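User: I'm new to structure prediction. If I give you an amino acid sequence, what do you actually give back? Let's try with this one:
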Amino acid sequence: MPRGRRWSRMMTDEVFLDDVWKRKIEPRLAARSMPVSEPVTVFLGGQPAAGKTRAQRELVRGYSGGLLSIVGDDFRQFHPDYERLCEEDPLAMPDVTAPAAGYWTGKAVGYADAHGVSCIIEGTWRNESIVLDEAARARLLKRKTHAVVLAVPPMLSRLGLLARFYDDLVSGEQARWTPPRAHENTVRALPSTVHAVAVSGLFDRLSVMDRSGAFLYDGTDPKHFESIWSDRFTAEPTADERLMVERNLAAIESIRQETGVGLEESEPVIEGIYADLGGRDLTAELEELDDMPPRRVQPREPKGTPRGGRWRR
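Assistant: Good question. You get back a string of structure tokens that encode the predicted 3D arrangement of the chain. For your 313 residues, that looks like this:
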């Protein structure tokens, strides 16, 4: 499927969006929801590929009655073109599905509020006003509020961004691409958002977690919350981290060459990672990759059985 195809325009129609919500999404949320007497809204933030899924699992364990998970990315699958996009134009998928996913995220938050259900809203925190406005709304509804931010150096999340896409690509899974610009815009915005969250007075509890899901800070002190996050976010890579990144990056570059998928789009990410490591002249390598035609991908089932290839670009 060529890039630039006009995918379903109906996804801008609120009547259609509401119909999908009522038929496919709301029943699933209702089945996983449990009203509580003192509901809490947990705001989980961090740049793409920082490890929010793992952090969310740890947070859910800490709340009796559970937390309804609200993740915008999870709603992309309900877009009628989602599967075709993942197969035929995975690099376009995020932009095409974003409006619908954002709409359904808002509906999910409204559902939790209306039914007294504790929830965890996962996001990038790229836009501080969205976080603060929703926190203020939660307070007006007499809900408890808990802000959790992941302290992960951008080099590690840049690597994660590529690893999860290319790993899924070669294993035959639906490879979900995250635009690098979304990562870099978030990295630039996070210091301001974390500060705004810290000083807002809108949160009953403030926490910082690392990529493994461990708490680095958990309390109510805004200064400690911000400083502990900043120290880890800006930390130089350890020797073990450098070795891990170099090994994984070599594997990723091998997949890029083999598949020819996303060469142009992933190039700035790879350059950024090498810059984080202290620099490496990639000019010759990248010019060689750019000259390579797309190759046939042979996806595999989890047990290693060939599944039948597809042409991907």
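You can read the tokens as a compact description of the fold. Here is one thing that stands out. The first strand starts at residue 40 and ends at 45.
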